[in-house]
Amino acid sequence: MPGTISKLAALAVLLAALVAPGCGGGDGDRSITKAEFIEKGDAICRRTDRTQIEEFKRYGKAHQKSLSGVPIEKVNRLLIMKIGLPSVVREVEELEALGIPQGDRAAKTLMAEMREAVKKAEQAPLKVESSSNPFLAVEKPAARYGFKKCSELI
What we know:
This protein is about 70% helix and about 0% strand. It is mainly α. It contains 6 helices and no strands. Helix 5 packs antiparallel against helix 6 (about 135-145). The radius of gyration is 20 Å and the shape is elongated. It has one domain (about 30-150). The chain has helices at about 1-20, 35-60, 65, 70-95, 105-125, 135-145.
């Protein structure tokens, strides 16, 4: 029995060593170019937008009766919290999983700004619909970096 445990432990260490290089920590530990980061990132953002629209439509159809008569602010907050923000959180996580291009401080800063915008939106969801939308602060830097679709977070 003791030999089996040590073999399993050795196997686990070997497996971790084989898998670890492919895991993206988002700090440039995977080699991705800026062009690849932008191309793959915009594809993620496009997919997120399509999915989000479909989820809004499905939710609206499924809950049409229960939402009628509910104040619009309450409906908007509900939709933002149930669909909007979770999809943007996934989007940011997927972008980070791509890995940051090595040595690219602008990309690292942009990802930090995206995470901060998500945090602010989670704290005050209705700000997403106002001129103090936390994602507005990320759109211009994302566009300057080269993103097209990812410069339109919400």
